[in-house]
Amino acid sequence: MDEILSREERLVRALRSLYSSCGYRPYRMSKFEEYDLYAENRSFLPAGGVITFTDTNGRLMALKPDVTLSIAKNLTAGPGGSVRVYYDESVYRAPDRQLGFQEITQAGLEYLGEADAYAMGEVVSLAAGSLALIEAGSVLDLSHMGFINGLIGALGVGERARGELLRAIAGRNAHTLRELCTQCGVSGAPVERLCRAVGLYGPLRENLRELRDMSVNSETERAVRELTELDGVLESFGVSGGVNLDLSITSDTDYYNGLVFKGYVPGAPTAVLSGGRYDSLLTRLGKSGGAIGFAVYLNLLERLYEPAGPEYDADVLLLDGGSGAAGLAAAARRLRGEGLSVLVQRSAAGRRCRRTARINDGGEVEYLD
Amino acid sequence: MTDTLDIALPKGRLGEKVIRLLGEAGLGAAGLSGESRRLVLESGDGSLRFFWVKPADVPIYVERGAADIGVAGRDVLLELGADVYELMDLGLGRCRMCVAGPEGALGRAGVLRVATKFPAIATRHFQGEGRAIDIIKLNGSIELAPILGLSDVIVDIVETGTTLRENELVVLEEILPISARLIANKAAFRFKHPRVEALTAALAGILGGEKPC
Hints:
Structural class of chain A: alpha+beta
Order of helices and strands of chain A: HEEHEEHEEHEHHHHEHHEEEHEEHEEE
Largest interface: A-B, 23 and 23 residues
Number of helices of chain B: 8
Largest sheet of chain A: 9 strands, mixed
CATH architecture of the largest domain in chain B: 3-Layer(aba) Sandwich
Strand content of chain A: 15-25%
Strand order of the largest sheet of chain B: 2-3-1-4-11-5
Number of helices of chain A: 12
Oligomer: heterodimer
Mean pLDDT of chain A: 89
Low-confidence stretches of chain B: none
CATH class of the largest domain in chain A: Alpha Beta
Mean pLDDT of chain B: 90
Number of domains of chain B: 2
Order of helices and strands of chain B: EHEEHEHEEEHEHEHEEHH
Shape of chain A: elongated
Number of strands of chain B: 11
Number of domains of chain A: 3
Radius of gyration of chain B: 19 Å
CATH superfamily of the largest domain in chain B: Periplasmic binding protein-like II
């Protein structure tokens, strides 16, 4: 049965199984949502336009551009409890007015509730597990917006400069970081500390000491404490070895306010998994508690999953050699009974099968190759 | 993903300078020259593969993973907004992105007509100043636009300023300095990290100066 599933379908099934193993439940949602939700929370949305339309009652609706926002709006964890849901859904965006619309298929999970070290470790380990299911040799890199915000805060620059600094950090762009700081009249140790932090790359555990040394205020200290606790939990989950620290991972939205992470697999040129902690979104929606989740971008795996060899329509192409419909049906049934897929056609035109056969005068299947 | 490090080089003068720099760092390949008609060249040990592409296309090759690293001008990177790591300022091909035009052209009231090859950079610059503009996208001979009345000003790269002077145009504003940058694909940076880091360090050793990220 498995063989008729595409690799992507098998992956989605494996991801569901993985997420279910930690008590996550499936969550289905409508493809449509009132536009107001996105208009009010624009700064939490990734770049790209929202595709809107008017419904039969004249309300302005949107094709869902994001899953997390809907889950955060619709679900609430009870006191002492948690919401643990997973999904595989499409979201729709208009990345550029000249480039039409985009459908992004994604699978992922969200945790709402007290986001303590265990919850964060659980989500990060499930992200690492998701990557392992996609491809061997994957890497999961994480950062902490609290640490980055703390280092930028120590520079004492304005909000506009902060945005430009974050862009330079995301590009590991030390020369532009220094240039921007000079323009803001900042130089010396705080600037070099930020450049050093952005240049760090390697296993989380090996870099924690350096992070501690670079800590400058309560915000960075809290971030280091969280990362240290997380490292311990990840070790217990058996995934700490494959997790790297990379402070160039930042968020271009107001979505993530703490831990952020991205996953890469060999053969894909961009991150195929992205996630993090988004308590500030809950606060914006008038809710309390923590939230953390991630999404796997299935559409980015399409090329990765293209078969290396030729794709066949069926195992056997059974040519209609004049044996009649009943004879063909009997032969096709026999071959299917042997576990082969069979395609019946008058000629081989336009078909690609592993073997070609016909029914000989004796009514037996005779292979022609 | 192969072990070979794929490097996209910009065709033209900048590419020639990059080749010399790579050669000094011991990272060249026999026959690697801008004059060569071969589009793909490998180093003797097969560890490096170079290919020549149009300068404006280098960030796209790198962002999409066709190349692991590349060399691109800051002008092209800012215009395209490519999602790549910008590992080092190579200091090559230094010039300035400027607003230029006839003396006093910026003092014009109303919407400013701006001819440029770099609409994104020009739009960002004038938006930052709160100025209403009408962008006219051209692909070459930008200096001709204000002379013929097609635009009030231009936004373009200025190296020596000779072309501007010969056409009675002046630099009205400097937007930003430009130079060539070493860029890397974000996935390749991870999966080929030691090799990308070694190449970056080798180039930094030749150039001296600031420590890259």
